[in-house]
Every structure is written in structure tokens, then in C-alpha cells.
Automatic annotation (TrEMBL):
Belongs to the class-III pyridoxal-phosphate-dependent aminotransferase family. BioA subfamily. The gene is bioA. Its cofactor is pyridoxal 5'-phosphate. Homodimer. One of its GO terms (biological process) is biotin biosynthetic process. This is Adenosylmethionine-8-amino-7-oxononanoate aminotransferase. The modification N6-(pyridoxal phosphate)lysine is found at residue 279. It catalyses: (8S)-8-amino-7-oxononanoate + S-adenosyl-L-methionine = S-adenosyl-4-methylsulfanyl-2-oxobutanoate + (7R,8S)-7,8-diammoniononanoate.
Length: 429
């Protein structure tokens, strides 16, 4: 029997349930959802709101999608889960085939993981075990970018920006890695010689101990919603090749079309050594992620001292999640998804343009199906969260940023309503 929302559950939620980034002391409001369909969330009080967040960027096809529902229902008839150690099954293998086919050429090996953060943990462990297997254990440090964000688990926290990454409380117990300056050239600019020189100096000074450079290609997400020049990706690739450092792309947020390309690496037409995907992989239905690597990485690890890659999640290759992921990818590729992303990009540019005239706005930027209003001062989440709901939309701002990553199926009318609510909110900061 499905649980029904009641006042008693609301009280229990408030007193016992720890929500993301929240406190039990004067907690921010939470809004109970009783159903979701298309791009709308239905609240317990009967209101329907347009979801501008795609459930933290994952529900690219919206909610209650018939094809994904059917895939889940059919898979449940055979098996919802079976361990992946020593066993295999069609949903997982088919998913790996799809991922190899759609990602940049050269990424031929796939490790299925639980979530985006775990996919990055896997990428880190791959990088470290690769160099240990090559007899170079001294290459055990990582380099990441300022303003970067890679997840909330410990390995991932250690490569998030120490300031904007929200993890400074743990700085004394996290490994000390290197951080390169955040890319300064905008998406339509070329990297400056000064930027390239600063990065090259870090490589020259530390390459003997560096295992990998980890970056969010083109779009830095939770660390600041920043868009930067694809030219940096070519610089990263050249420097990693020259100084023998692995290049890792975190495409958990950008994968599956969000930036206007199927994967952000395509903006520079290159292949990283390791690539992590998640979020939109199952269309927002279940937690699932994957880490892909080139043959060189997997071959060296397989021939190393351990004779195997030392990682194995309990729910690795979950058949139910893999079946839904297969359906989600099929739905995406069966349509003219690029035209849909371009349509959303036009709608975001048009709808957010008035924010550029506001005195409290520092910047407005749009790339693909991502729209950002950056304010000069941080806003109050409690006030603005309620205001968005009252205006009929779900947008969850943070810090100085009011942003949207809508589902790809959002109509022009709903997109106009969403952007108008964003403008209205920042007008009354």
C-alpha cells in the first residue's frame, strides 16, 4: 500500500528527517509532493508547480514517462536485482554497449556505479591504481579546478574547491590535492596565454606526483554554475599528455545533452582518459552512474599487483536501474534532442534577458538547457523558496545563484512562466 501524506507525517518529517544541506534548528520549509507528471509536481495542498530543476538535473524526460514506466514494469517481472560479482545480465551489458557507442571514441571499458559521487570515487581509484600498477606509486596526488564540484563523498570532497565546494569543515582530514585557477575565458572566448601559463607551471612543478587532472568540462556546476571556453579542454588534454597525467572528465551534470552536445567533451572534439556520468542516466528514475575509461587504463590495472580493479558496489549493475537507463537513452536518441535543447536555450535567453537590466544582477548566462542569474549579493533561501512555490514554479537557488535546468520536454509556455518567476523573484530580492 502506498503511503499517503498526512499531518502526522509532516510533523515526523520536521522532527526526524534530515534533508539535504539542512538543519533541525530553524529548518527551511519543505513542500510535500504527492505525484509528478510531465514537468509538474503536485503538492499535498493541491497546487501544481512547474519543475525548473528536473530533480537536480536528472529528470530530462519529465515525470511518469510511459516508455520508462514500461521498462521498469517489464524488468520487475523478471528480476529487480542480482549481484554483479560473478553474474551478468542483458540490461547491464546493453547499457554498457550504449554508453561506449555514444561517448567519445576510445572509452571502451565501463564500470557501473551507484551514484555520481561514487562514479567520481571510482575515477579517482582508477587513476591511483593505474599509476600504482605501473610501478609509480609516487603519482598519488590529484589536481582539480577552483570553483569545481565533484560530490559529497570523501574522495570527491577532496577535489572540490576548498572554499566554494561547501566542504571546508573537513579540510583537516581530507587529502591535500592541488587546485588550478578556475578558467576565466567565457564559453565563446579563447583561453588567455596567462591562464595557460599558470596551469602549465603547476604541471611542470608537480607532474612527478600527479595521478590525474579532474575537471567538469565546459560547465562548472554546484561550485558556481560557471561556463568556460572549450579551448581549455584542449589545453588540459595537451598538458596531461605531455606530463603523463590522466585526464578525468566529470560529466555527471553535463552528460546526455544538457550543454547542447551529447557530452561536453564534444565541444572540443576530444576524449578524456576517464569519464564519469550519472544524474540523467536513468531519466531521474533511480540512482545509477558509470565510469568509463580507455583501454590503457583498464589494461594496466588488470596486469597490476592486485590483478583486478579494487571496487565492487553491492548494487552495481542493478537490472532495474539499467533497464530504465536503456529506455531513457533510447528515448533521448530517438528524438531530435539537439533541436529541443536549442529551443530551450532560445527560451531561456529570451525569458532571462530582462534580468540584465536589474541593479542587483551581476550576470545572466545561458548554455544549452541551463539558465543562470547571478546576483551581486546572496539571497535568503527560505524567502525565495516560498516565493517560487507561490509563483507556481520549483526553483532551488543557492548563494548568489538563481538557476534552472529544466526537463527537455518543457513547453515554450511553461518555460516562459518559469523564467518570468525567476525574474520576479530577483526583482524583489
Amino acid at each position: 500500500m502506498l503511503a499517503q501524506w498526512t499531518p502526522n507525517l509532516a510533523d515526523w518529517d520536521r522532527n526526524h528527517v534530515w534533508h539535504p544541506y539542512s538543519s533541525f534548528e530553524n529548518p527551511p520549509p519543505v513542500f510535500p509532493v504527492v505525484s509528478a507528471n510531465g514537468v509538474r509536481l503536485k503538492l499535498a495542498d493541491g497546487r501544481e508547480i512547474i519543475d525548473g530543476m528536473a530533480s537536480w538535473w536528472s529528470a530530462i524526460h519529465g515525470y511518469n514517462h510511459p516508455v520508462l514506466n514500461q521498462a521498469a514494469t517489464e524488468q520487475l517481472q523478471s528480476m529487480s536485482h542480482v549481484m554483479f560479482g560473478g553474474l551478468t545480465h542483458a540490461p547491464a551489458v546493453s547499457l554498457c554497449q550504449k554508453l561506449v557507442d555514444m561517448t567519445p571514441d576510445g572509452l571502451n571499458r565501463v564500470f557501473i556505479a551507484d551514484s555520481g559521487s561514487v562514479a567520481m570515487e571510482v575515477a579517482i581509484k582508477m587513476s591511483l591504481q593505474y599509476w600504482a600498477s605501473k610501478g609509480q606509486p609516487q603519482k598519488h596526488r590529484l589536481m582539480a579546478l577552483r570553483n569545481g564540484y565533484h560530490g559529497d563523498t570523501f574522495g570527491a570532497m577532496a577535489v572540490c574547491d576548498p572554499v566554494t565546494g561547501m566542504h571546508h569543515l573537513f579540510s583537516e582530514i581530507l587529502p591535500k590535492h592541488l587546485f588550478a585557477p578556475a578558467p576565466q575565458a567565457a564559453f565563446d572566448e579563447e583561453p588567455s596565454a596567462e591562464d595557460v601559463a599558470a596551469l602549465e607551471q603547476l604541471f611542470a612543478e608537480h607532474h612527478q606526483e600527479l595521478a590525474a587532472l579532474l575537471v567538469e568540462p565546459v560547465v562548472q556546476g554546484a561550485g558556481g554554475m560557471r561556463f568556460y571556453s572549450p579551448g581549455y579542454l584542449k589545453v588540459f588534454r595537451e598538458l596531461c599528455d605531455r606530463y603523463q597525467v590522466l585526464l578525468v572528465f566529470d560529466e555527471i551534470a553535463t552528460g546526455f545533452g544538457r550543454s547542447g552536445k551529447l557530452f561536453a567533451a564534444e565541444h572540443a572534439n576530444l576524449c578524456p582518459d576517464i569519464l564519469a556520468v550519472g544524474k540523467a542516466l536513468t531519466g531521474g528514475y533511480l540512482s545509477l552512474a558509470a565510469t568509463l575509461c580507455i583501454d590503457e587504463v583498464s589494461d594496466v590495472i588488470s596486469r597490476g599487483e592486485a590483478g583486478a580493479f579494487m571496487h565492487g558496489p553491492t548494487f552495481m549493475g542493478n537490472p532495474l536501474a539499467c533497464a530504465i537507463a536503456n529506455a531513457s537513452i533510447d528515448v533521448l536518441l530517438a528524438q531530435d534532442w539537439q533541436s529541443e535543447i536549442q529551443r530551450i536555450e532560445r527560451g531561456l535567453n529570451k525569458g532571462l534577458a530582462p534580468a540584465r537590466e536589474l541593479d542587483n544582477v551581476a550576470d545572466v548566462r545561458v548554455l544549452g538547457a541551463i539558465g543562470v542569474i547571478e546576483l551581486k549579493e546572496a539571497l535568503d533561501l527560505r524567502t525565495h523558496q516560498q516565493r517560487f512555490v507561490d509563483n507556481g514554479v520549483w526553483v532551488r537557488p543557492f548563494g548568489k545563484l538563481v538557476y534552472t535546468m529544466p526537463p527537455y520536454i518543457m513547453s515554450d509556455e511553461d518555460l516562459a512562466t518559469l523564467t518570468a518567476a525567476m525574474i520576479k523573484s530577483v526583482q524583489h530580492q
